[in-house]
Amino acid sequence: MTALTPLRDLPEANIFRKGDVFVLFGELFGRGYVNGLLDEARKAGMRIIGITVGRRNEDHSLRALSAEELTEAEANLGGRIINLPLMAGFDLDAPVGTPTPTDLLADLKIANWQEAKLDWAHVQACRELGVKRFRDTLAEVMGQIDSMVPDGANVFFAHTMAGGILKTKVFLAIANRIYKGRGDRFLSSQSLVDSDLGKLMLMNFDEVTANSFAYLLEASAALRQRIEASGGQTRYTAYGYHGTEILINGSYQWQTYTNYTQGHAKMRLEQHAEAAWQQGVKATVFNCPEIRTNSSDIFVGVELSLFPLLEALKLEAVAPGPNSSGSIASRCWKRAPAWNPCSKPSPITTTIQPSPSSVTMRPGRWTTPPSWPR
Ligand SMILES: NC(=O)c1ccc[n+]([C@@H]2O[C@H](COP(=O)([O-])OP(=O)(O)OC[C@H]3O[C@@H](n4cnc5c(N)ncnc54)[C@H](O)[C@@H]3O)[C@@H](O)[C@H]2O)c1
Predict the structure, then answer these.
(1) 102 lies in some domain
(2) In this predicted model, what pLDDT tens digit does every residue of 238-259 receive, in sequence order?
(3) Residue 257 domain flag
(4) Which of 46, 115, 134, 179 falls between 20 and 30 A from 321, CA-CA?
(5) Which has the higher per-residue pLDDT, 332 or 322?
(6) What is the Cα–Cα distance from 162 to 266, expressed in whole angstroms?
(7) Considering the entire predicted model, what is its pTM?
(8) Considering the domain boundaries, does residue 321 fall inside one?
């Protein structure tokens, strides 16, 4: 996607009703974006089904949830979970007796990671194994979901999977320099993308964040055909990220994190949805504005978009009342009284106004979707 197509109004039409099925394709830990969709699904009387990524044993092998973990996960979801481990990616997969991609990185140090070379034939073998494991388990999961969806029901698949960072010590130090570093500690994201480590990381992001959606579309084809033949409909959504418009000096302007390595995988996710539409499958990637969740907390700078978002909620408030967007925004501001712009100009809102001295928010720098990701 290179054209910006902001969704200005929330769609009112809704085909979903009691007896329809909502499938959450991603495990919910605490709260995330998908809680909004889950609330709507519950309101519509839909049956909720979820999956799990599983858990790792000490030897890194994958297992299903224990009875206790399953009870807890189902209570958090408010629905039934198919208890087969659907962990995407291949960072801990390898042919028996050979090192996993994560093992290959064990000797990397801050002094040598940029020159380090990987055995790509071996990486490819690990990737094929990881993909096969995921698709084989998914086929079983889909068999169970199929048996829970009656003819004629509508089905909504919500994909939330995103991740794939390789768990290696050196990456913590690299990430600190790339995502947070200033001055002497700054390291360009290009140096990561150009290294073998970076290339491996992008491949794993692709598997977790993007290709898992393609595998879902593929694995649910038979279910989709049965449902559509019996008068029901299927819809697929995924959460993308492709920058967002925020309120700067009273008008909306597209902006993004100055660097978002996962952006390449998020674009591949969009491509999978585009390819599905061309086949007549209703798969949509919604590119969301930033919010603070488990997955976004690692990014320094998420707050740069959150404060203008609160301003935007106030600006867009049409109806007064305790649940209007304006009231919600005011309540959020009150939780951060030191920054309340009603009482005094905040250091944060000053930073986020575009100015030639603000490197992060300098207008015209990365301000068009085609310049993304960096
Ligand atoms: N938080 C933000 O600011 C933000 C902004 C734009 C888009 N998003 C997207 O919204 C979606 C939901 O994210 P969220 O912020 O609610 O957080 P979240 O942490 O709840 O979602 C991440 C999901 O990815 C799954 N996951 C992680 N690694 C996985 C793996 N190896 N295999 C399978 N699943 C794996 C987790 O189980 C979880 O369901 C994600 O696609 C995220 O990229 C988030």
Answers:
(1) yes
(2) 999 988 888 888 888 887 766 7
(3) yes
(4) 46
(5) 332
(6) 9
(7) 0.91
(8) no
Q: How far is the CA of 163 from the centre of ligand 1 (A)?
A: 7
Pocket test for ligand 1, best of 56, 82, 161, 209 (most atoms within 8 A of CB): 161
Q: Which residues line ligand 1 (CB under 6 A)?
A: 26-27, 29, 32-33, 53, 87-89, 160-164, 208, 239, 241, 288, 290-291, 293-296
Q: How many structural domains are present in the chain?
A: 1
Distance (Å) from CA 300 to ligand 1 centroid: 17
What is the three-class DSSP state of 71? helix
Judge whether 322 lies within some domain.
no
What's the mean pLDDT when you consider all of the chain?
87
Whether residue 338 is predicted with pLDDT greater than 70 in this model: the reply is no
Assess whether pLDDT exceeds 60 at residue 343. no
Residue 248 sits in a domain whose CATH number is: 3.40.50.720
Q: How far apart are the C-alpha atoms of 111 and 116, rounded to whole Å?
A: 10
How far apart are the CA of 278 and the centre of ligand 1, in A? 26
Q: How far is the CA of 296 from the centre of ligand 1 (A)?
A: 8
- Token representation of residue 104: 């290959």
Return the exposure string of 309-335: e unless at least 16 CB atoms fall within 10 Å of the residue's CB, then b. bbbbbbeebeeeeeebbbbebbeebee
